[in-house]
Design brief:
498 residues; alpha+beta; Outer membrane efflux proteins (OEP); six-stranded antiparallel β-sheet; 57% helix; 13% strand; rod-shaped
Length: 498
């Protein structure tokens, strides 16, 4: 739609200059006033992705979350343990040692163990479970929770939540990247617009100063009244004032942009005025797929919604753990014992198999009940937040499309207005050359053309800002390629001085 309007107006479509290598930051650092290539949005976004402190801080959060995950995995570390007992004095002198390994697992909370134990001396009968052969005996077995601790336990809950928190930290990185790209694009297009406004102001001033030389010659020759020269000098002063204001806005915009444009050391780089592109990229086409598809795709991609889903997963683990802790603890232990002896007459030589049950149940269970109530409340809160966040995404996508459509239409209208204003200005200058107009009228026509050109600049900037907002709310901006503007360009400037 807008492409046809641009072509129909026969505006200058430059060669793909914006596809050339972008601004070299090292050139700016060495000599800010030197000639540099046009600064592209891609260069700014690359600097954001590589060096922005906020993105680096978010990435550090991923590293911290991975550290917590490693810590949670430590709950399943292999454990070496040893106990000993010695009775060196008394009726019965004896010694007992027990050394073993225990390995917790994630399989239904089972714990595998094995070891070696040995006793020596006169072990009393009341310590009969500690009597072994002379070489000791090997033990191996497994403890399996039959109810509480089977589906889930505190260690597995912590490990599961740690994994979710790593995903959460990565989503924080995606969210930070998306927001920074949006902010960088906003700063960039405002800087480009300020640069073009400055050039329009400079063009107006150049025309008035060139005309002033011609008018001075005519006044000296007596061919023109002094009032015409004075009127032109008044216009020069006014346009100089406007130029100062435009230069100030460009400097302010450059400082804002420097927060995103950074060198290899991460230091802000203030882009010079000469790096402002000569043309705006041609407006991007409006989205063509149905709004509902756009909204569904945005819901699927938005880091904000994914983060809420992750928070819900963490709360669901808390609820499942609390549910499990309401059940009684019944642990089954099965172990085998193999004595180490070559003496066929040793009464402790036979292999043994033993099993045992452990039962435990807090009668009031208020801790688990309170934890479950808290987790359920957290789930209800997150569900409500998810509902609203989804609705907000839908509304944001719809609003972004409305703004993008309106901005596209404004560009077309502004270009038509500029074309008409240029024609009127040229016609007025022709009348002035024929003595049928005045310099005051010509100045007004030039100002009208400049105003129309500024509205084109504003409309083009607003379009690209609206497109950036659409990329942000749909989360399509997570794909770096989506930020590449068209290589076809539009010239919103003034015609050459007549």
């Amino acid at each position: 739609m807008i492409r046809a309007a641009v072509m129909g107006l026969a505006l200058a479509l430059a060669s793909p200059a914006l596809a050339a290598p972008g601004l070299r930051l090292e050139d700016v650092e060495r000599n800010p006033d030197a000639h540099v290539d046009a600064l592209s949005l891609g260069t700014v976004l690359d600097a954001v992705d590589a060096h922005h402190p906020n993105l680096q801080a978010a990435q550090a959060g991923v590293d911290a979350a991975r550290g917590e995950q490693t810590s949670a995995e430590g709950g399943f570390d292999l454990v070496l343990g040893a106990t000993g007992k010695a009775v060196p004095f008394g009726k019965d002198v004896w010694l007992y040692t027990d050394t073993g390994l225990r390995q917790p697992t994630t399989l239904w909370g089972a714990e595998v163990f094995g070891g070696w134990r040995r006793s020596g001396g006169d072990v009393p009968l009341y310590e009969g479970d500690k009597i072994t052969t002379g070489n000791g005996e090997l033990t191996a077995g497994v403890t399996v929770p039959l109810w509480q601790g089977g589906p889930i336990d505190a260690r597995r809950a912590k490990l599961r939540q740690a994994g979710v928190k790593v995903d959460l930290a990565q989503l924080d990185v995606d969210s930070a990247r998306l927001k920074l790209r949006a902010s960088a694009a906003k700063a960039y297009w405002k800087w480009v617009a300020a640069g073009h406004t400055l050039r329009i102001s400079q063009g107006l001033l150049d025309m008035a100063e060139l005309r002033n030389e011609q008018l001075e010659a005519r006044v000296r020759d007596g061919d023109l009244a002094d009032i015409e020269l004075i009127e032109n000098q008044r216009a020069i002063l006014k346009r100089r004032s406007e130029l100062v204001k435009a230069r100030q806005k460009l400097n302010e915009a450059a400082l804002d942009l420097s927060l995103f444009l950074r060198d290899g050391e991460g230091r802000p780089v203030v882009p010079p005025p000469g790096a402002v592109p000569d043309h705006f990229p041609e407006p991007e086409p409006d989205p063509v797929r149905p709004l509902a598809e756009d909204q569904a795709a945005a819901r699927a991609r938005q880091p904000m919604l994914a983060k809420l889903e992750a928070y819900r997963a963490v709360a669901a683990v808390d609820r499942d753990l609390a549910d499990n802790e309401l059940a009684p603890q019944i642990d089954l232990t099965v172990a085998g014992i193999q004595p180490l002896t070559a003496d066929a007459d040793d009464p402790y030589r036979k292999t043994e198999l033993e099993a045992g049950l452990k039962f435990k149940l807090p009668l009031q269970r208020r801790k688990a009940q309170g934890a479950r109530a808290s987790a359920e409340a957290a789930l209800r809160r997150i569900d409500a937040e998810l509902t609203f966040a989804g609705q907000a995404v839908d509304a944001g996508v719809a609003q972004a499309r409305v703004e993008l459509e309106a901005a596209t239409q404004r560009v077309g209208i502004a270009l038509q207005e500029l074309d008409v204003a240029r024609k009127v200005e040229l016609a007025e200058k022709t009348r002035l050359s024929l003595g049928e107009s005045t310099l005051l009228i010509v100045n007004l026509r030039e100002q009208k053309t400049a105003d129309a050109a500024n509205r084109v600049v504003s409309a083009l900037a607003d379009h690209h800002l609206a497109y950036a907002a659409w990329l942000t709310v749909t989360a399509m901006g997570l794909d770096r390629a989506e930020w590449a503007p068209s290589t076809r360009v539009v010239d919103p400037g003034l015609p050459a001085a007549q």
